[in-house]
Amino acid sequence: MLENCKNAQERWGGVSQIIDRWLHSRQLLLVSFCHLSEKKEIADGDREAEASVRTLCQQLVDYVSAGHFEIYDQLIQEGQAFGDAEGLQQAKSLYREIDATTDIAVDFNDKYQETDDLESLSKDLSELGVALETRFAAEDRMIDTLHTAHKNQLA
Length: 155
Prior knowledge:
The chain is mainly α. Helix content is about 85%, strand content about 0%. The longest helix is centred in the N-terminal third of the chain and has 36 residues, at about 1-35.
């Protein structure tokens, strides 16, 4: 039994570090988003704004990709390893919420990654902000349901 606990700690203890790095990238994404959202007007040819939009797009794609291709898989595997059927069921519902926001993030990236036309940026940032708020809340609940809930079993 002690060996099983040790293996669980070795296997799932590292998930906390992965999640911490991902949440740090979320924080950087939010800083970029807020910095850009604070601009009242963006003039045509505003190179600083254009660069900020491209930075935001890259951070957005990196963050969303890490969630879909790394974090969610780790959380699901952890829930499966602990036989957490209820948590896994909740995760399915949360994943649907998260997935609904992915299209908004991808559309934003596709629109602004390669353009200098920032005319509708303010409106699009507002829509993206709502989607990110929904996404972050669902991701936090997923982390709580499939990772934090098992922390005592790792100790």
